[in-house]
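Progress report, Aim 2. The chain analyzed during this reporting quarter is listed below.
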Amino acid sequence: MNLTDQDKNFDVVVIGGGPSGMAAAAQAAKYQLKVALIDDRPTLGGQIYKQLGVGFKVKNPGKLGSDYVKGQELVAATNSPYIQVLLNTTAAAIEESTLHIVSQNEQAQKITFKKLIVAPGAYDRPVIFPGWTLPGVITAGGAQTLVKTQRVLPGERILFVGSGPLALAFPAQLANYGANVVTALEASPFPKLSNLIKLILATPGNFNLMQDAVFYRWSLFKKRIPMRYGRMIISAEGDGRVESVTHARVDKNWKPIPGTEEKVLVDTLCIGYGFIPSIEIFRLLNVAMEYEEIKGGQIVTVDEWGRTSAPHVYATGDGAGVEGSYIAISRARLAAISAAMELNVLTLEQANSEASAFRKELKHRRAFQKALNQTFKIGSGIFELAGEKTIICRCESVDRSSIEDAIESTIDISVVKAITRAGMGLCQGRNCQKQIAAMIAKKHNIEISDIKQTTPRFPARPVTLGSIADDSVENEKFFIDVQ
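Predicted structure tokens for the chain:
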């Protein structure tokens, strides 16, 4: 979409069209602020509220589940004269109050903002084990895309492995769509009585979440899908695609217990061990970060309104630390209220009044999230599944032994990248960087949180070279006549 000069200046620019981004845009528009809402997908909704693609017509939204209906409500809220929605658009780079965007099949453009709310969401936590690159191994997010937007089941015999609420919810959702889920494996042990009591005590304000949990558990029971606790993926095997999967019982640190291995014949392995925040834009902005493994690892440091250490920049949603969609939405609304206050649309008193309900919501939701985090902790064994010849960086086909050779004499991921090319591919280290950091931490007996990530590079997301090329440059200028 080519924007006119008049359309390129905004009060608030929101990056990310998931629940957090949509909520931030709608809240800012409530105060008649001029808003741009940017997302690189063809539809709004993000991962959890993913909407059907262009060409699908929905006659009964309720049949697509409560997530779809909630998503439609948020999408409808962005239908405002104060909001310009830019889909199929990538936020590539930021310079002070200018954002460089690249739209599909268009040249790069610049838009300006007074306040920037970054809500980039999160992506599935990569788990590296022998066979993880085989066709038929799919993340929960990938499976959701197939099922929710394309109405395609990922396979005929599906094994789900993961941890946390997703390990309960997603197999049930898949089964309700008609998928043949043979077993669901939860890496954490069955919740202790003390954990269950904490969850029950945190129920006020979270009754719908408890209700969902009961519904999903009943769905698995009704469809005779066994839910097995304290077991984790070990490997996937097959000739050209997944044909079988080996899993084993694990200790409290998620380390496999020898002699407990079991093999199951399946054609699809669905992985759901949580999410990692998409922090690429935050890294380009050089905002202050901290480390919380349960929230995905590197997360953005923010104040109560969502302000980052960068001037006029807010971080919200799972991209600032994975806490779930309800918390993401409340955080987004607080960020929008703060932006309106700083733009002198609201007084401090008005802002606090507007924020009170969302702060109350956050308090209840975070109490429940804390109880969940104590029940389902990420074990260090998740980083120790790869074999010597297991590919760590699948973009550049770099195996574990090559990484181990490189980390013998360095704790710098950028040095490992330079030596091995791990992290130089299309995903720019999203799949392998954390695994490499964990290997370095173990080898040199340091905390993974102390290991610096690779240097952030423009663009934040891959774009075509042609979209950012200067039209004034002609090809023949690059050729030298040597005759």
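Residues 5-123+276-346 form a domain with the FAD/NAD(P)-binding domain fold (CATH 3.50.50.60). The chain has three domains: 5-123+276-346, 126-272, 386-450. These observations will guide the mutagenesis work planned for the next reporting period.
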